[in-house]
Amino acid sequence: MQSSGINAEYGGVSILIGTWDEINGPKLMEIDPSGTARGYYGCAVGKGKQNAKTEIEKLDLSSMSCRELVKEVAKVIYSVHDEVKDKHFELELSWIGKETGGTHQLVPQDIYAEAKTYAEEALNDSDDEDTDM
User: Fold this and answer.
1) What is the rounded CA–CA span in Å between residue 21 and residue 36?
2) DSSP one-letter code for 99
3) Hey, how many other C-beta atoms are within 10 angstroms of the C-beta on 86?
4) Dist. CA 22–CA 33, nearest whole Å
5) Is 103 helix (H, G, I), strand (E, B) or coil?
6) What is the pLDDT of residues 8-35, one digit of tens each?
């Protein structure tokens, strides 16, 4: 659900391709630097991908709406970002699905704002729990 699904890592490129149509529904494919293509319900590429994949695996993706998924993806992105080691990032969210008529689009501003707030609050709650220990 990021607008940029390209990751130039170790001299290679990983690409995420998302599609949707009335007959087949949603499809998400990853093509890794070796050229291997795999299909997923949820996937991550780039720095922090293993932590992101761990968080994604905890979700019941097949039963969630696109709106719910956008919120959860934002939460995952915020949760794997290391504020100490990583530079500042700007959250960008896009989607493709029934809501968009099968066209890749940026997530509408109201949904984006809701997802960003949800992710930031979850991160703050997590930080609060860590300091309570």
Assistant:
1) 24
2) G
3) 11
4) 31
5) coil
6) 445 678 899 999 999 998 999 999 888 9
